[in-house]
Amino acid sequence: MPPFYGDPVSDDLAADWARAARGTGRLVVQVLVPGGRPGPMPWHSRSRRARRLLVAAVAAYGLVVVIAASGTMNDDGRANGGVAFLWCLPMVLALVLTLRRPLDGWRLLSLWLLLTPYVLQGPAFDVPVLEFWEWSLWAPVLVAVGWAVPRRTAVGVGLVSGLLLVVLRYGTAWPTSDDLQTSLLVVAAVLLIGMTLGARWDARRALAEEQLRTETALAARGALAERARIAREMHDVVAHELSAIAVRAETAPYRVPTLPPEARTELAEMAATARRALTELQQLLGVLRAEDQQADRAPQPGLTRIADLVTAAREDGVEVTADLAELDVPTPLGLTAFRIVQQALANAVQHAPGAPVDLAVRQEGDLLVVSVTNGPGARPGRTGAGVGLLGMRERAELHGGTLSAGPTADGGFAVRAELPVTADVAGRTA
Predict the structure, then answer these.
(1) How many Cβ atoms are within 10 Å of 351's Cβ, its own excluded?
(2) CB burial class (10 A; 0-12, 13-18, 19+) of residue 8?
(3) Are 238 and 281 in contact (CB under 8 A)?
(4) Cβ neighbours of 37 (radius 10 Å)
(5) Residue 285's pLDDT is what?
(6) What is the dihedral of CA 301, 305, 308, 309, to 10 degrees?
(7) 426 band by pLDDT with thresholds 50, 70 and 90
């Protein structure tokens, strides 16, 4: 029973059809009217030479197709070969334009395909809606459009392309064969191929962005962990010095009996201040170690322990050449030098397995110089997020020093730290 006038079901259906018609109209207008700035194309390379080669290859392909088509049209009497070649040159331009602006390239090529039957004389026999040479130009453009533009826009391109085929089938003077359905299926299939490539590219780009965010988060987390470790190590160093100050201040009246009362009072206050600072330092360390119940409580290493690192690396099969000078440096500075060497050796083993390593620790003027250089690895190594380099750089800056790290000319990697020997670490951390 047909719905009566004013039936809510029929009204809703009409409203849905009206909305669909308006949406389709807006989509067609969006596809046909140029506008907007194109984003990065998935086939673009960072190499300028590669981009130029791609443009040259596409232009050469288009010229070959156009020359062959001009010869065919000259042979069957449709048009003079030279005239046909000149008329088809904008199609080559459309191919090249597609590399940078796919929609604009599709618009120009589609317009030229539509005008060709009206400009050139038709053959005396039936031809397909689009001839092979026309498909040879149009299909790559449709693939590029489906690959590069959003899916909704690609659907609009498919609708307009289907309308173009209908016009070419029924609205031109050229005698055409009845293969419209096949042509429509070809357009749909070609666009679907492009959209599949586009979906794959979008997925890879999203994965790369997610990996970048993950690496950034891991680097930030690693930096915080390294800073907490530095703080724990500085506690061990500074606590020893504060304890020594407190003990010397408390025992001074017994070691120097002739001290006046004012000096005894001053030393007692100094000892009390040192004890309070030590207590507060231990409380702060407790916060840092709240989630680190297995923290290392052994004495902190220094320059003398670097030889142990070299021995351990050699036992693991690493070819290490070491030049270690016997130096007397402040404890915090020795700890920093040890940690830099430790991390640099670990990086060499991880990123360049089997590579020889040259290690040098020496004093140049007022600088303690730590240099670790490895050659190219014998086999591919694992990649990292750069947390180790960040930690080494922060340790060097803690002493007012600098750290440089980068690849060498022979494919290896070099780390060099320059640390002022007279740096006041306790003052800097305060």
Answers:
(1) 17
(2) exposed
(3) yes
(4) 5
(5) 62
(6) 70
(7) very low
Report if pTM > 0.85. no
Alpha-carbon span 228 to 30, nearest angstrom: 56
Which residues neighbour 376 within 8 Å (Cβ) at sequence distance 6 or greater?
A: 352, 355, 410, 411, 412
Give, in degrees to the nearest 5, the angle at Cα 248 between 242 and 252: 150
CATH of domain 303-429: 3.30.565.10
Lowest mean pLDDT of 54-58, 231-235, 370-374, name the range. 231-235
Taking the C-alpha atoms of residue 415 and residue 370, their distance in angstroms, rounded to an integer, is 8
pLDDT digits (tens, 9 = 90+) for 12-54: 666 666 666 666 667 666 676 766 566 677 887 778 888 889 8
Q: 287: pLDDT confidence band, cut at 50, 70 and 90?
A: low
- At a CB cut-off of 8 Å and minimum separation 6, what does 238 contact? 281, 426, 429
Residues 318/319/325/329 CA torsion (nearest 10 deg): -20
Domain boundaries, the chain: 11-32+39-178, 220-288, 303-429
